[in-house]
Here is the input.
Amino acid sequence: MTTSYFKNLVIVVAMLATGSPLLSLAASFFPLESRHLNVANTGIEQVATPSHAQLQLKWELMDNFFQTPNAHGKSRAVFTLTNTGSAALSETGWALYFNCIDGVETGHLNGNLALEQVVGTLFRLVPVAGFQGLASGRTLRAEYFHPDPNLKGARIPSGPYIVFDDAPDKGYAITDYTVAPIEHAAQSSRGRTAPGSMVTPEDIYRQNEKIQDLANDAIPPIFPTPLNLRRRKGALHLVTMPRVTGDSALRGEIALATEILRPYLSARALNEGIEPGIHLQIGSVKGQQSPDAYELLVDGRRGITLTGNSVAGVFYGLQSLRDILPLRPEPKAGLDLPLINVVDSPRFGYRGFHLDVARNFQSKETVLKILDLMARYKLNKFHFHLTDDEGWRLEIPSIPELTSIGGRRGHAVHEDDLLPPAYGSGPDVNDQYGSGHYSRQEYIEILKYAAVRHIDVIPEIEMPGHARAAVMAMESRFRRLAKIGDPSARLYLLNDLEDRSEYKSPQLYTDHVMNPGLPSTYVFIECVVADIAAIYKDAGVPLHTIHVGGDELPVGAWEKSPAGIALMKEKGLTSTSDLWDYFYDRVDQILRRHQLFTSGWEELGMRRVKLAGVWRAVPNRLFVDRGFQLTVWNNAGDNAEDLAYRLANAGYQTVLAPVTNFYFDMAYNKDPEEVGVSWGGYIDLDTIYDFIPLDYYKNSILPRSRFVGKAHLTKYGQDNIVGLEACLWTETIRGEGRLDYLMMPRLLGLAERAWAPDPAWAQEPDTVKAEAMHSDAWSGFVNALGKRVLPRLDVENTGWAYRIPPPGLKLENGQVYANHQLPGFTLRYSNDDSEPTNGSMEISGHINAKGVIRVAAFNRYGRSGRSSRVENQ
Ligand code: TNX
Here is the structure.
């Protein structure tokens, strides 16, 4: 249904993107397997000795934008395979597997080799008739095409391994795998439609130039920006740990207040009761309706009084209290707090972060770390993408196969026990990102952890597309039970085994959808929903909604399914759009029976209709009154620019998660060294900060012309915008600090937009004035981040390895000027082209030194970001 959106978006973004020549593409660009070959027990003479499987693989981009009449805009790449063992690789009987996002062109290659699709984005290189084998010490080259440019690197093949026909269920990871650097022009060409340019240190300098370095008292004292803050002269001086009192419902918050303050104050001496105390209470905050509102009063004599409209309000007030603490505790000297009066309330009730744990599994510890971070910045909805084509990550006690099969990936000929490798997870079933799930107990732990932090965990169960893990697990269950004549074999079957529909998902699957014509599909969904509801009940944590997916059902799905066709006949339905309505009507009924409302991706509120001969997706009238909550991601596809506003205007509860601003799997910028994907554009900190939720055309990266005649939010529609959400998809996230890097500090941009009131610069009609106001506000934001918010994460040992951006550099009159996006970080330089270290010279003003200057930014513990380089001869 929406693959066309996806494609259009890809085209748009390909046009927006520009290349970046001559920057080196590090071999560490993507995760390399670190396991060692173990071929000792294959038992087959030809491959029995390790030497037969000693292979070295190199990948090189030849042309980023290959142009011939038949191949426009493809990229050409080459695998170089070297036999480093002592015996030959045979003429037949082996296959080299790898994953590749967006796929490669299959078919015959020169050198009697061929590329085949195995399933989804798993491919293999195989020898064909005429292949002579690869003798010891020899090298072969396999040139092939990617359908799109690949300078950015997210599409570089990953997780390579070799399989021999003699032991077809065993894959050997190729650990000696490198990626050649980008060194010549063809590798970074963008063709004529998108003239090449790279992210130069000068570009960064110019971007940073409008940022002023603010004095401490000019930096906004609380993050995210509160609704109303008044400062008075003077300070509250505390000498020892004050008494923390409060309502009994606030036990957790009282403990938190104590925990926050303890490092700053020595214990209270006996008999000393004269210190002003801290009082926490639930009350009503003047003029504020939101349960999350609070009032924080710091008074020189009366101490600290914190009132919340609810427990959550008090919790948020404590996060603000944390933010006004000095960075360095000095318990002996006591604590001075500024005298302030804050009345605060969030702009949006829904302040969300979405984590995909299906593509590459993320551990429970990572999830808890994220919840901690969200709580600090007053985010309150954790959208947990637990299932997808490549993994099912939550134990469902009634259907163990979902995790015992659907939660594991590795190489096998048949998918009876596991799913195929994806996103570089390789052949090994023990890969920590390929395989894994949360047990019921672990999930309960996550729920409780979130609840204490006033975060709702919204579980997502993907359907009817993006469901391959479940579909395959249930098919395997069926096969196993049918073989022994078990009458329950079909109980949870999700696919019509006679389905001959032709379709392809964005991840290139052709067999990944649930079928609406099978009664067992609804039995399955009912069972999963009931088990999830029971898990929440056991945790003592309320469940309000389940996110039932709905994105990207490919065109063509269900069309040739006898079960689907039979259902259509029976119910008098005329199209697969009708089947869609039937499906989600039933899913909604299941959820209602469990007192849940339905959440889903935007497609849940859309229907495909033919308008003037053209298929269009319009708001679906059928579900408008059901209280559906839609996560709207597509703001850049053809006819989707105004989708969020059209859905909100139609009456759907709308969460804005626009790909061009809030998809944190996108790279920060076009520099090939910046990790992440780019199909939705690039997202630097300001791309998020500049987002204007109720009028997002204003600061869009898309050309103005795209918004001509598009819908604007009505007053009614405005009330239906419930909030904002950032999405982190994990196709490229396999350790190496990637998650931290892509999430932070971008999450702070989201937190500001979701909590802070509409900024004055977004409302100012005079564009010149608005620009100046924006610059001031942006300076305040990045100064707060650089000098307080990020350093506090370091000081409090949270372990977040947030991105420290490369500095901007400008060469003028023989001097090098440097600046940075985050004032407060220390800039250090070398002049011999070496990486600056914590011992390198600190920059004050500008650099006079001659030579090849490299500058990097350092945090207070000496961790640095990528360096920038300029020659000053
Ligand atoms: C689109 S937008 C997806 C995901 C991918 C993501 C990658 C949406 C709801 N689905 O399946 O992981 O793009 O950026």
In short: The two ends are 58 Å apart (CA to CA). The longest strand covers residues 55-67. Residues 356, 551-552, 601, 633, 663, 665, 677, 729, 731 surround TNX (CB under 6 Å).
